Amino acid sequence: MEHYESLIKHLQDRIELSEEEANLFVSNFKIKKIKKRQFIVQPDFVAKHRNYVVEGALRAYVVNDEGQEHTIAFAIEDWWISDYNSYIYQQPATMFVMALEDAVLLQIDFETEAKLKMANPKFETFFRITAERTAAFFQRRIITNLTSSAEERYDKFITQFPLIANRVPQYALASYLGMTTEFLSKIKNNKLKK
């Protein structure tokens, strides 16, 4: 039950549930242990699970025609990750989702999630809140990327997500922020000199 405690807290921070309801909710999740560099989603295969991170760090990214990687999302403890377009529409994925560290996930599959939502409107409310927060986060991220300089994007990221900034490889952080690894190194070096 130890792996489920963080998910129960996550759930109860967002909606009011009885102990019985919380236990029913988490009983629908399976524990998945993955190794560093292991993929849980790959392009052309349907993303079968929504993944809650109990331990570890993961990265979702795409690769363009020139072979350049673009990080779409990170996830550490108490965060969710998947290729949501693939998961929600049950169509082939376009992203890779890979462990940056050994990780423990709690996974729910699409059909089980649908049944859970039908079983209790509170569960549907939880998934709606999660989706709304995710949509709002991605909107803020797009606006920041379109309206801020590279240095401002870096500053904002390390202020908001210091735990992630210290755990992910520099190349992954650079691609998330929309810059080269060399340019990120230059920004960091300039900050050290100040």
TrEMBL record:
Residues 32-111 form the Cyclic nucleotide-binding domain. The lineage of its organism: Bacteria, Pseudomonadati, Bacteroidota, Flavobacteriia, Flavobacteriales. This is cAMP-binding domain of CRP or a regulatory subunit of cAMP-dependent protein kinases. It comes from the Bacteria. InterPro entries: cNMP-bd_dom, cNMP-bd_dom_sf, RmlC-like_jellyroll.
